[in-house]
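Structure, all two chains, one model.
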Amino acid sequence: MLKHEISFKLNGKSIKVEAPFGINLLTLLREYLDVTGPKFGCEQGNCGACTVLLDGEPVNACLVLAPTVDGRQVVTIEGIGTPEKPHPLQTAITEHYGAQCGFCTPGMIISAKALLDRNPNPTREEVAEAIVGNVCRCTGYNKIFESILAAAEQMR
Amino acid sequence: MKDVQYFAPATLKEALQLKGKHGSSLKVLAGGTDLVRDMNLEFKIPEGVLWVGKLGLEYIRQEDGLIHIGAATRMQTAGASKLLQQKATALTQAAAKMASPPVRSLATLGGNLCTASPAGDTVCAMLGLGASVVLASSRGRRTVPLAEFFTGPGKTVIQPGELLTEIVIAPTGRNEGSAYAKIGRRAALTLAVVNATSRVRLDAKGNCEEVVIAMGAVAPRPLRAVKAEKLLRGKPFTAEAIARAAEMAVSETRPIDDVHGTAWYRRKTIKVLVERTLRQAGGQSEGAK
C-alpha cells in the first residue's frame, strides 16, 4: 500500500511519519508511532476511549482521518504528564480512585483537561457535560467527578 | 485495505475543479464523524477523499440581513455562537447538545445536512428555521431551500460535481423565536427517536404572522408540517390553536417501527414536541395558558 508523509506536532515534538492515507488518527498513533495511551474501543465515536486533543480541542482520534492532522498539533495522555511529574488530573484520579480497569482513563483525562483549560472552576454538571462522551463501565462516574473537581481545585 | 486518494485543497476553486473532475467517486470529508466511522466499521473505503477543512468554510456572520454560516462550521462553534443563540436559537439548542464534546469538535453543520439522516439534530433545526443552502460547482452556484433539499434517507439534490458551501438563515426578529426539542433513548449521546423545531412570529395582537414547523425521524426524510403551518398562519396563537396544529402535524407524518422506537410511540411523542416547540418559539412558557 502506498505510504505518504504526514508531519505534525505530537505532544510538543515535531514528527514525520509514513502512513497510508486511508487510516484514522488512532491507528496512526498506536500502530505507526507506538503511542498506546489512546485506547481502541468502538471505532465509531461513541466510547471516547481514544480521545486526544487536536489543536487544543478534544476529538475522537478514531474519527479523524490521519492525513488531516498534517501541520496540526496532537496531544495524548502521554503529553500531559509523566510518572515522575504527573498532571494534577492524573494525581487526582489515583488519589480519588477515579480509575478501576483504567481503559477509559486516558480519554477521560483528556476530556477533563479540555474542560479545565477553558473553565478552571467547573460545577459538577459541567464536568458531567464534558465527559458525556467518555464511557466508563467500572466506576459509576462518581469517583471520576470527585477526581476532576479535586484536580480543578488543586490547579486554581 | 485499498489505497485512498486524498486531496486537501486550500481554495474553493481548486476543490470545485477536483469535484467536477472526479464526481461522486470523490467523497467529501468535513468532520469525518460519519465518513470515517463508515470507513472504520463497514469498510466502505472511497476511491478518493476531498477534505474541506482548509477551505475557510467555518464562519458565522450576518450580512445583508441574513445569517451566513460556512458549511464546515463545527457543532461546537455553532453551539457557542452568540449570534445564533439570539437569532437562530433552535440551531444552538440542537448543536450544543448533539452527541458529545469530542464529536462536536469534529462534526459540521454541512456534514449533518449532507448525511441527510431523517433524524439529524441540526438538520431538523435548520429545516425548522427555514434555512437555504448554497451548492457550488465549477460552473456556478445555486441556492436551494432545505425544504427541497432532502429526497430520501441519506439522499439529497446535490449533484456529483457540487459542494455544499454555505447555509443561509433569516435571523429571527422582534416577536419572533425558534425552539428545538428532541427525545432520545437516554439523556445524552443519543440519536433522536423523534425531534422537532418550530419558528414563530407573532404580531402585536398575538396573531401568528409566520410559522415554520420541522419534524425528524417520522418520515423517510426530514419533514415540514406544511398543513399544520397553514392552520396557524394568520390566526390567534392560542393553546387551542397550538394543540390543533400539533394534531395536524401528526397526520402529516409517516413513521416506522425500528430499533429506536415504534411508529405508535413516534406519533405520540412528535405531537408533544411540536406543541412544546411551538409554545417555546412563540414565547409562551411550558404550561402557560
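Helices of chain A lie at 25-32, 88-95, 105-118, 124-130, 142-155.
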